[in-house]
């Protein structure tokens, strides 16, 4: 799964063939933004792996590089200012970074698709939802407009939009937030892609609708055995649907773990901080825990462990040596020099 | 639309698919080709942005009135003799500056020519200059502006600086220099000159609105779902960026007709054998106290024309914005 940055890989021998394992294999991905204020290192050596039918949650606060990683994988990074400066993105055995523009475009939508946070702004306001759903078929499969429209109605029914055939000519603003997000999901699913990246798909929705949308997403994922990357900052959303979690901080993965193990005993102080800052009913009335300080400025990431200025466990070594990803347990890794202490519950 | 809970059974299985197919078949049976009812039901054949806009426009009185006025103007521009049987050049100096009389409802100008006939014949020059110059400037400007805004980079810089150079050319002085070397008595040199000076304004607006539209999430989403550059620009960006261009173009149309009048007044625009409202307005302006009818009729025709185009532009802009529906 996730590899140590600083040591040679051991499972390199496995051939990168399209099979059930290794749907997406991101290795040492690096992305930087060249801005007027300097170079912002948004992603600094990220390793991710998703297999078919698996859900990987990428967790992190704003600016941790989770969305940028997703955009780099999709190939929709705004460039300039964003540039992929290193690593490889193996998708079904092919390195996407080595593909031509046109080949890459054909992968988008057909093989991997993306669901965005705000469905209202992610749907074109001047086109009816039927036209936008149908576009998936006219662009990628060359269907006629009429046939595409039939497919659009079918899709809308599949994602649970009532009276789909009557509403197919409606415009995005005529739908409620939850219905719009269902339409976004329908668009992403249209061509039955092998991988879906959902970038905070429920953040813009209210809580009851959030649960419905997540259920729908999980259900469709099972049905099509797709790989799903769920990008979120909401630990509550993650627990129910994800198989594994990758926690990102300052453009790095700081902890990766099967979901239940992570909730039970985090192996990185940052993850612990995140879990402790969830409001809990049994601690009602007490002060809510918050991680002190702010995430680092990406144009000047502190030396050593990027989390050290905010870390309650920080010692001298943390200010000088960047911790590699230590294997904590099979399938679990933590980029903390003191992962053992953290795991044992030290603060 | 209230959020309604949908039972999971309705989502998971293939039933949805077959149901949709059945509906599709029923629809095609119900509506054999060419026999569709005039007012399409919501489940009718797919309509695009433009056909939706047209559907709305037909019901908009502002559009209908301005459209009829423009059609009328276009007809008299092509066949002025339909409503004016006289000769616009026939001068009767005995009637110079005389008021209305039977058979000459608008009176006579300084040289004793029938103002009514000249107003009718003048439509051709003004409408030709106005529409052709606007169409040229709008097409050239929006094409260059959209490409520059979409692709950015050095092309964008080159276009912006070129536009700045054209902005720096003084209109009247440029017109005098450029048009005085051309001896053609047709409207085309004037049209060409106005397009040359007019496109940067449109390009700047088009570029700005494309840059804004490009940043919208749905453009990113379209890209993430595999749309190519051309499709993104034509289908997702252009319809969302076109409204300001239409507004600028309709306003410019009036300005261009007035600019033609100004240039004609200075002797650099249309040359006198051509009949134009601009030439007549300039000629009449000196006599506004003695014979205001010589000014008011061509000026009124000019105003109605400009108003009709601006109203048309307004209606089209509103129709292209589904949120106003």
Characterise this structure:
With 347 residues, chain A is of the alpha/beta class. Helix content of chain A is 32%, strand content 22%. Chain A has helices at 66-74, 101-107, 119-122, 129-140, 145-158, 164-167, 177-189, 207-224, 235-241, 259-264, 269-276, 316-320, 339-343; strands at residues 24-35, 38-50, 55-59, 82-91, 94-95, 112-115, 195-199, 227-232, 244-249, 252-258, 326-329, 332-334. In chain A, the strands form two sheets. An eight-stranded mixed sheet of chain A has the order 6-7-8-3-9-10-12-11, with helices on both faces. A four-stranded antiparallel sheet of chain A has the order 2-1-4-5, with helices on one face. In chain A, α4 (129-140) crosses α5 (145-158) and α7 packs parallel to α8 (207-224). Chain B has 325 residues and is an all-alpha fold. Chain B is globular and about 75 Å long. Chain B starts with 7 loop residues before the first helix and ends in a 6-residue tail after the last helix. Residues 1-46 of chain B have low confidence and may be disordered.
Number of helix segments of chain A?
Answer: 13
Gyration radius of chain B (Cα, Å) is 26 Å
- Give the class-level CATH name of chain B: Mainly Alpha
State the end-to-end distance of chain A.
28 Å
Classified in CATH, the superfamily of the domain at 24-111 and 193-279 and 289-343 in chain A is P-loop containing nucleotide triphosphate hydrolases
**The CATH top-level class label of the domain at 24-111 and 193-279 and 289-343 in chain A:** Alpha Beta
Largest sheet of chain A: 8 strands, mixed
Provide the fold topology.
The complex is a heterodimer of chains A (347) and B (325).
Chain A: E1 24-35, E2 38-50, E3 55-59, H1 66-74, E4 82-91, E5 94-95, H2 101-107, E6 112-115, H3 119-122, H4 129-140, H5 145-158, H6 164-167, H7 177-189, E7 195-199, H8 207-224, E8 227-232, H9 235-241, E9 244-249, E10 252-258, H10 259-264, H11 269-276, H12 316-320, E11 326-329, E12 332-334, H13 339-343
Parallel strand pairs in A: 3-8, 3-9, 6-7, 7-8
Antiparallel strand pairs in A: 1-2, 1-4, 4-5, 9-10, 10-12, 11-12
Helix pairs in contact in A: 4-5, 7-8
Chain B: H1 8-12, H2 15-30, H3 49-57, H4 61-78, H5 115-151, H6 153-168, H7 171-180, H8 188-214, H9 217-224, H10 229-265, H11 277-285, H12 293-319
Helix pairs in contact in B: 4-5, 4-12, 5-6, 5-8, 5-10, 5-12, 6-8, 7-8, 8-10, 9-10, 10-11, 10-12, 11-12
Subcellular location (chain B): Cell membrane
Main location (chain B): membrane
Protein name (chain B): ABC transporter permease
